[in-house]
Batch of 4 targets.
Target 1
Amino acid sequence: MPGSGKSVVARGLKEFADIIISMGDIVREEAIKKGIKLSSNTLMEFAKLLRRERGSDFIAREVIKKIKEANAKVVVVDGVRSLEEVKAFKEISGRTYIVAIHSSPRTRFNRLVLRGRESDPKTWDEFVRRDISELELGLGSVIALADIMIVNEDLPLDDLMKFASTIIKKLMIRFD
Amino acid sequence: MPGSGKSVVARGLKEFADIIISMGDIVREEAIKKGIKLSSNTLMEFAKLLRRERGSDFIAREVIKKIKEANAKVVVVDGVRSLEEVKAFKEISGRTYIVAIHSSPRTRFNRLVLRGRESDPKTWDEFVRRDISELELGLGSVIALADIMIVNEDLPLDDLMKFASTIIKKLMIRFD
């Protein structure tokens, strides 16, 4: 969910991964191919349009192309939105794990207000509407079925990263 | 989700609550009224039928009746399944908080196999099908928007309860 810190954690996992792929970047690339200028405001809507027009796992299939091109063995994918996408990844690797980063809505709202990007919600009502829109593709089900749930409520960044890497190491050993 | 330990935590919160209401119990009461015998296997299907036939917030409204009858001030509701239900509770109290208990699918599966109730899934495929069915009403969105996320991966029961009560106390102070 927006403001949970998932991209921070994803980037912090680079020591474990051959490649880190942001699904948002793939959406941005598609927009450039079509000559569409996206703001962060319209990114989510364009991502939904892509999934509707080209299949619910379209962005996942683009990620898989990149993984194959890079011949990567350990991959972090940032921004999975639905169980269809998880399924696409599981088809190419039985060792696909969902890592969810959770923060309460109140904490995420406070962070987004502090971050203050032009596209970030300014009011609680706007934030709630965006959350509902984020959940439309089935992100909630992905979170509910996470193999690892990291709670990022009031951790300093260093501690969050240490905690995340410890948990990931445990996951790698446990599922080996 | 089944096997996460949510009902254990709900019962453990009795020191904070005037009343603990299980939404599953309300479904069972409705079945008795209709003279239907439910197994745990058919409980979920009957709950879905009730929500389809009598409105997505029907069970929530029954819960609210009980809260009003008991004139309860602090209430724990176990088994919320959708944001429509959360909305119904928020309409009667602005101080409605979602507490989610998360365990990984693998941990929940192991617990359910160990528990071994007749109605519990026996195979991984059956477990996965049930999970997907549980998520159909929108439970994932409720979990994604939890005010408190408790991770119950490998905590002994005592520690889980201590942890849950500490977090709930913090929540009560924080949101006061």
Note: Chain B touches chain A at residues 1, 83, 102, 104-106, 131-132, 135, 138-149, 151 (CB under 8 Å).
Target 2
Amino acid sequence: MKRRVGILGGMGPQATVLLMQRLIDATPAQDDADHIPLIVDQNPQVPSRIRFLIEGTGEDPAPTLAAMARRLQMAGAEALAMPCNTAHHFADTIRAATPLPFLDMVAASVTAARTHAAGDTSIGILGSPALRRIGVFDRAFAGSGLSPLWPEDEAALLAAIRQIKAGLPRDEARATLHRASAELLGRGARVQLIACTEFSLIANPTVTGALPVDTLDLLVGLIRGFALSE
Amino acid sequence: MKRRVGILGGMGPQATVLLMQRLIDATPAQDDADHIPLIVDQNPQVPSRIRFLIEGTGEDPAPTLAAMARRLQMAGAEALAMPCNTAHHFADTIRAATPLPFLDMVAASVTAARTHAAGDTSIGILGSPALRRIGVFDRAFAGSGLSPLWPEDEAALLAAIRQIKAGLPRDEARATLHRASAELLGRGARVQLIACTEFSLIANPTVTGALPVDTLDLLVGLIRGFALSE
């Protein structure tokens, strides 16, 4: 019997659908029953993390996230996962809300970075400038011997995220990502975390010589590992 | 405030993801909060409908579906929907399990067929032979003045479903669908329901002269209508 994972979703809704699609794609299946059971709270109305954390206005999302965790537990979830790096700022609130294990995408990113680092000391992060400012990755990497390195041109990255969200052709966004990837590689960050779901949608997001590690794929791995182990 | 719809999902998991993706695509959004909240029970372990209904072996899926409906209600769902035509055989069980409204994809198909019929008396159905055998659409069309018409070559349709599920290139499956569509059109069925999620994945599933109506899109419409009305 496979164990059911609860998804704190909707941040944004497309990230949640992408996670579900990748779970299907990662599962060799002869029949429906081979796939992994989920209970998904697709809640696009979680108060804006950016507004609360960066702009200092708006409602605190923490109580909503705690309530979602409790509802997922009531609905049969045996572990929790959240396909949004920024919202991992509230991981402790989610952990405290239920006794369920929390499958931590940011912690998994640090583990993956250490695995691939091979003597490197800097890990590139291709994500939203908001993610940099809230310090989720800086705190997670503390004590790991690795430092997160962020691209200089924040405005270009933000513009690329907006272009992808708006459904525009992805060539321009990929060109922006490649410039950021080349910059990070030049500054010594060979391992590069894809830490933004919009960037997860871009094929070949990094330049030759860089090693891309998609945080969403790491979460897929955690969910599969939990669901398929007794 | 948007009302939250509970999804009895996982039959198969890809159909559920496709429904969620189409809901996102159908929603003009400036921000996450513009999207529709869902609570999704992605349960690929619902006992096989085919095995129980057609082969006469295996576990009855009805108790599992009723339990899913109750769990979705506990998790905050205000209505229920199910992206699987075959499983609508159990619609009454689901209706009886909670006081929530059930957004009925098969009933919506009959309504859409009547709207588009314009004097036609036959409605073509491009779906699995199993769907034909359980009689879900025959019962739904009873008394409507319309008769469902099914393609003759059931083996070809089944093979096309298997090809799509296996991720094979879709040209061959589309060719099969076009032969079935041309046959239905020749027999007088201009309106053709796409009543199988595998076929919903095929662009341009019908021949010129036929009017395709995708049942999954009808469910998207029902969910949007419910979620956005007070």
Note: The first strand of chain B starts at residue 5 and ends at 9.
Target 3
Amino acid sequence: MAFKFQLNPNIKFDYNQKFLAQADANEPTLIVHQQSVKRWYTLNTQKQLVPLPNKLIQLPLHRDDCRILDFGDHYVGHLALDLSAHGAHMDAPLTLKFQFAEVPAELALDSANYTGWLSRSWIAEEVFHIDSLPTSLRLPRRYSFRYVKITVIDTSPKWQVLLTNPIVTATSAVDEENLPRPTSKDPELREIERVSTKTLAECMQNVFEDGPKRDQRLWLGDLHLQALANYATFNHPDLVKRCLYLFAGMPTTRGLISANIFTHGRPAPDDTFLFDYSLFFISCLKDYVDQTHDRATGLTLYPIAQRQLDLALTYVDHNGKLQLPESWPAFIDWGDIYDKTTAAQGVLISVLRDFLVLTTSLKLPTSTIYQASLERTTRYAQTTLFDADQGLFTSGPKHEFNLYSQVWMALAKVLPSKQTTKLMQKAYRSYFPVTGIATPYMYHFIVTALLESGLRTEGRRLLKTYWGGMIAQHADTFWEAYKPEDSNYSPYGNPLINSYCHAWACTPAYLIKKYQL
Amino acid sequence: MAFKFQLNPNIKFDYNQKFLAQADANEPTLIVHQQSVKRWYTLNTQKQLVPLPNKLIQLPLHRDDCRILDFGDHYVGHLALDLSAHGAHMDAPLTLKFQFAEVPAELALDSANYTGWLSRSWIAEEVFHIDSLPTSLRLPRRYSFRYVKITVIDTSPKWQVLLTNPIVTATSAVDEENLPRPTSKDPELREIERVSTKTLAECMQNVFEDGPKRDQRLWLGDLHLQALANYATFNHPDLVKRCLYLFAGMPTTRGLISANIFTHGRPAPDDTFLFDYSLFFISCLKDYVDQTHDRATGLTLYPIAQRQLDLALTYVDHNGKLQLPESWPAFIDWGDIYDKTTAAQGVLISVLRDFLVLTTSLKLPTSTIYQASLERTTRYAQTTLFDADQGLFTSGPKHEFNLYSQVWMALAKVLPSKQTTKLMQKAYRSYFPVTGIATPYMYHFIVTALLESGLRTEGRRLLKTYWGGMIAQHADTFWEAYKPEDSNYSPYGNPLINSYCHAWACTPAYLIKKYQL
């Protein structure tokens, strides 16, 4: 896991109230859906889920009894249920433990064993004491789940508790009861489209959240991909507009856009800065203008986009070599085993292209600086980073060959089209089956690089094996982290904290439609 | 532990709305006291309490840090405190665990190990997730405590939490800031009086609770003793009146008074019936009339008192032998190692005397039935239960000699005064130091029997060693259970559930004043 917490207490932010007002004006009205329970389970002595016969659902529960509610699909919302005491008068409080799970495997884990580096506070469980029954309990916090395990910590020997009418009040910025239909004719791909559309819908809340289970935050890297999937499905551009204004409304005093925004309560930027994420503001704005032809927004936010590029270019030397400071690392992917220098150069070249397209589509004059920068950075890649003998790009001081570099150089179109095809063919021979990469985020760029380079069969196959691999494991929504070679992988040392509905995994709906797979 | 849960689902209750309205009319206005924290502690590596230097109180806390708040004395109320995040923007929820303790020993125990028979729901702990800081957190449930351990389950690596302004909003039906002063000249006894007065004050809430930590319920056995201590200290007879009306207002359809009343929400009788507790309604009404000369209440409730006696007398045979059904056991004490048959007979005789006194003081005609019953039950005790050779009473089919029997026969004044003195002298030689008895409730009757029999020195000594023994263990209030020979004793298999402020332990203030110790 390469993600390092950044602490930048001395960095100050500028708040552009006009932009933030625009963000407010585009706040969505959430669509509410009431979902009752589909199936009841209990656990057998081996702690496996066992369906509960109908007649047992009506039975009151004793100390240590548990019920697992299955709402049939993934939801983001509030759980409510009715509780009543059966037997003698309630002579002690009722104590119930609720454990929310996006996938059944989470239910088997004991949170007491969690020692991971991410906050334990994200573990989706609650314990409630209830002093008076009957009552309708509405849990005050929003959770992201399909399953809820309810354990009776205790009643008393004199009475038991009956759980009835569990219901989820689920929300989304889009109508989840009428999800857009898949476009592919291939049943496997249709299923992947369906799940990716559901994933996106679940993450579309007050903003594009990265994951409704954890963080629940607007990250630029996720937004970039969510927006593309959104255009291909719900086409709800106002939510993209809102998010662009949130990022643009709270840059640092130097004009740098934060990697993510806190949106609980008053919006606030995180003091975390990622090179590629800042630059993707440009790509995201370009895609937005492409999609909506909303030239006014494009023109208003263009200076903010330009500022990201200008800041990036200060780290490019006269040879066209990008050398990033430690304070502004490139994310590329969570993995930390591969060098990212060349991939970061590829991101910069790719975004330079996006910026020039944006400038043109807004009918603005193109400064020669950016064209020159594109040429210089591209030339550096061609002449210095490309190893003609190997047919691959090297990365970093140790001239490492890795998949990140080939993918981003292909996406940056550094080489002529036919050579890019050869590059990705070589990459395919060298690095497939892919190992050591755990994020659908990076897999999205690998698949895109294959498809853009004409390796349609390989791109389609990877999409099927990777996202299809999650479906084979009964994914209702796509995951934050998935390593085909290690299906229990958690970047946090414990799957309890994994987000199993994660925005950056939602792109197949976009890829399948765009490339007509 | 002899206490068995009773389940009587088929028993129906009569609700006397006039009586319940009288109970309502005498509901006390609780007096509120705001108490700020007196001392801050943390735990050292050996999990011992270590005072926290002032400058450390101001430091924000990380994952697994803990603070122990000491409010300087026992309180019953709601905890509130201010919470703020320090460091970067809050990027995860805050999770705090609160553990409330009446005595420090509770803080060292892990609730996960509790396997006792009483409901785990009584374990005084809460876990809260807080999504937004700063905030003022007011815990919604009332707790009974002097100490609160707050453990930071987690913040995140980017920020810490600062706890400030912890405050208890404490309640009592009496003014705890002006407790009645002790009456004894003996410093040890004065301290015992002080602690017993505090114990009573803490249990005087909306009703006389048995213990504010657990049950929080109106039990007749406790009320009987609390009322006596109350007359000797706060003299708040309206609360006794309220409680008498609550019991009288909800008997079974046969007219039997329940052992206790639930008073959270709408009052309701428990379906638990104890012979001695039902009868103590009579003694409690007699004491109330003695104290207040409120003849109107006495006359109104007299038929209810009489009904308890009439029901009891149905279990007395023509020889004067009481033989109780399983459905109406005598409590006497929690212990289950000694036979209680003779003690129950002693309770009946004692209460018969109280009933006759009550009848006289209300200037009602005395039915010859009760006088005859008194004579018959007394004669049975004298002739059949008393073993002249041993100078002690036997109990049960196995002719067991035990302390319960001697105490209750002494209190029932079955023998002439001098012989009662001899009886208690013999009991003293036979059963002291007392072992196998864990309740201050039974110890109250032992001390009373000694004092009533003229064994003033022995009574005073027992009062000092027993209640003083709890003070030697730093009791701020007297306990539900205390065995001098086993100071870690818990009737529940775990002291986490023990009530360390328990009404039935509050009688020294009464005993010391009444007997001018």
Note: The two ends of chain B are 32 Å apart (CA to CA).
Target 4
Amino acid sequence: MMKENLEKGILLISCPDKEGIVAAVSTFLFSNGSNIIHSDQHSTDPVQGHFFMRIEFSHPHLNDQLAVLKEAFDETAKPFKMEWSITVSSKKPRLAIFATKEDHCLQELLWRWQLGELHADIAMVISNHLDFKELTENAGIPFYHVPVTKESKPEATTEHLRLLKAHRVATIILARYMQIIPEELIHLYHNEIINIHHSFLPAFIGGNPYQQAFDRGVKLIGATAHYVNAKLDEGPIIEQDITRITHRYNVTDLKRHGKDIERIVLYRAVKWHLEKRVIVHGNKTIVFQ
Amino acid sequence: MMKENLEKGILLISCPDKEGIVAAVSTFLFSNGSNIIHSDQHSTDPVQGHFFMRIEFSHPHLNDQLAVLKEAFDETAKPFKMEWSITVSSKKPRLAIFATKEDHCLQELLWRWQLGELHADIAMVISNHLDFKELTENAGIPFYHVPVTKESKPEATTEHLRLLKAHRVATIILARYMQIIPEELIHLYHNEIINIHHSFLPAFIGGNPYQQAFDRGVKLIGATAHYVNAKLDEGPIIEQDITRITHRYNVTDLKRHGKDIERIVLYRAVKWHLEKRVIVHGNKTIVFQ
Amino acid sequence: MMKENLEKGILLISCPDKEGIVAAVSTFLFSNGSNIIHSDQHSTDPVQGHFFMRIEFSHPHLNDQLAVLKEAFDETAKPFKMEWSITVSSKKPRLAIFATKEDHCLQELLWRWQLGELHADIAMVISNHLDFKELTENAGIPFYHVPVTKESKPEATTEHLRLLKAHRVATIILARYMQIIPEELIHLYHNEIINIHHSFLPAFIGGNPYQQAFDRGVKLIGATAHYVNAKLDEGPIIEQDITRITHRYNVTDLKRHGKDIERIVLYRAVKWHLEKRVIVHGNKTIVFQ
Amino acid sequence: MMKENLEKGILLISCPDKEGIVAAVSTFLFSNGSNIIHSDQHSTDPVQGHFFMRIEFSHPHLNDQLAVLKEAFDETAKPFKMEWSITVSSKKPRLAIFATKEDHCLQELLWRWQLGELHADIAMVISNHLDFKELTENAGIPFYHVPVTKESKPEATTEHLRLLKAHRVATIILARYMQIIPEELIHLYHNEIINIHHSFLPAFIGGNPYQQAFDRGVKLIGATAHYVNAKLDEGPIIEQDITRITHRYNVTDLKRHGKDIERIVLYRAVKWHLEKRVIVHGNKTIVFQ
């Protein structure tokens, strides 16, 4: 019978591969009263490679004993030189969504969130335009209009930082927010800013990827969700997908069909990020599904 | 540095779910000198559900110490009521392929085997026709012609059993072998006979599925690889896939396009079976990829 | 240069195949001042088969001269025994959407309609529950609550018919409306009622298809959009699609993933129907894309 | 009833779009005793765009009257400034396949050809290695070994040209032939050389695309079949497809999974080319399916 106050946690581990890791970790969890619900692991190479692990576990008093558990696990982690984190499932991360004038990605995220498919609180929507004020506020989410021009960019960044801090935002989603993100923000939100690019990267980096795709005459178009780093469209890829096109599609058709890919790819990436399924290693991601 | 004589094994476990399984198993492996290379697990429900696990591990002297290891593991397994097996990777199972007059599935399996993508020895091809004699023997594989008529069916089964026994065959692949398999064979090769059915089961059970699909006007056709049990086309499904069709396709077109799905679906199912990735539970399969 | 008052029409033809059809039709259009923008055709068999054609054309005064054009085309059509229709693009058909308590299909249709991707006016949403009143009215669409119980079914049908007539509704979309449609309505809206069934028909006809899919252990789940006729789930199929699942999905997961297929499959079928891309022939459809 | 000596032809047309093309062409065919079996058309823009058409037609004496028909059609074609061709279906084009050391694309083409799925005679296989001599000759096809080194390149090209001419080769397939094609050959076989590149172009142009894909951490890998022109990997794309990969795949896995995409993409492109379904326009293709 299910214990009533059973609480769930997620343990993420990244360390050099070595014999005995799984035994040590699972023994630790068992001896501390946790039950492994699901476990995934990956090694780039069992010999001298790098090891990654994601464990969903339940524990009767996880919230209360989290600090104790963490301190205890540190002893297990040290000899293996683990980087690790334990996240309590009951605590939802706070999201900010940045948008501009294309609504499909924002709509998808709001809708999924309303359905309970995103493990997050949406703290706010920030936009350099007013178009989505009503849509956002109808969903019961604060909307902030922060105009961005070439001249006002520094002030806009200051305002962004102020809002993000005030709302204790952990993760930023760029839902077709067509502005370059300043380095200060990228640095502060390391591997916590997710962008959707409207091509199957690395093809068609930069502006107007659908026009580029049309000009090249490709037979597939795609979208790529990735973490934002200092290099435009070159951050670690979380998810990609494509759809088939034909010679009958003009650029407007490509944009219309592309939207359906963009919104689903971004949704998946955000969902997986929030469920702690994504580990960044170098410029690549491990995605435990 | 890679130890020279490192040998690989696969441990499969199926038991009622309970706290401590992973810890017990991983501790056993570690303390017996094994290193976990890859591990997958699944629970139908952490509370009172059923637990499944597949572990790829390496051990410096697996072949020599297999009997010892098995005896020792029995102690770990008993309290959890585990059904389990340990397979040594260096030992290849022996396959028999049954075929009739459609060559695409047979061709695909022979070709994948020649490429080293199937972890098996192909012991023989058995057919009720002579069409594939040359194809089979060119690949260096014995070919046996066992005609099957309504009257000769019992003799054919006797001959099949004799050949399978003589060649120590562990697994039978029905590569579009259009004959009902007798119960005696099904019983002897429990969950070791894989069939490819040319529809996305449970749609279009029985004969002429492409004609049935054409008559119904479906927009997708598919194929299903499944273990053979006593009920026609109702055994546990291992893999399925589909392809899109249009109103322009007649039944001949469906058959032609269907072949491309059949051969890839059968190949995947056979490959996963041979790599011990498939666990049958009730009438369903767990497939660890 | 584009003529300013150029109007678009769609000509649909269905007749026994015979030499000279394309020549006769294209000559008619050309000699009447029309320009063929796009043309699709299909023959089940050039000899004694059935011929289908869809032509998008432009005409400088189509709205004004429609009656004249139709009368003239009748002369061309007769010798070939054509069933045919000419639709003026500027006139949008009026839709009614029936829904119950699952919002994903309704949401998708409203959203696509707001984006201008559905060539229709949505006349109303009818539901046997009140859940979607606000959603519908926020989109500026009338909402009618018509409760349906075993006893009130006849009254409900009367009310449905009254509403459909009052709003001059041409096409009905069942957006996961979980009620049997009475024959009177099916008869009145022959090939004008589109339903979404949550399985890849003909697999899993009837209730709880996701539970059925779970029990059978399939590796793909699907959805089917079809015209409604007197036989439950057996009407002409317009579109189907599938998504891959694994042993890790329980019935709730299947439902969640299935929604994404249902909404896109229904959207496509409705879009194609409204763009006059679908011709029903017997129990099958020709879909010109 | 089917006339016994009915012969099939394919008419391809490319010209500036203008009213009356379809009427003129279909009237010509009808009045010359041809019956349209299938017709496809495309216009980049009905106003000042470019128009493309592919018509499959039958004619009772096509082989005998081809010259007469062509001369007559010239009168219809001239006022529209058509580029056009009529191909008789009974005449198969002659193919040369170039290969090196990877067999999957060659195998697929030979197998499809044996199944009757490629409308061509394979005149020969040319390779710079001896590996496929037996495979080719077993299929009853002449094999020519033409070694290519930096120094011998000019002699190799001369030998290639001699063989191609001697065997009256119309189309060249590069089945993973890892050599740069000299301009002389490209010029001579304008839009008649098809290459398979092992990435979803324009991503990963040049050498080692799977290593490039691995390094970038993409979640999809692909293949591209294209006509060869003077710019490496930049010719008109005929077909592309992709397959999903995960973080678990190393470069060897990518190569193995990529092969399955390469062979099917090349097969489709070759099939469509041989069935006269592909029209090159600028650096893009129209593919009528």
Note: The two ends of chain B are 27 Å apart (CA to CA).
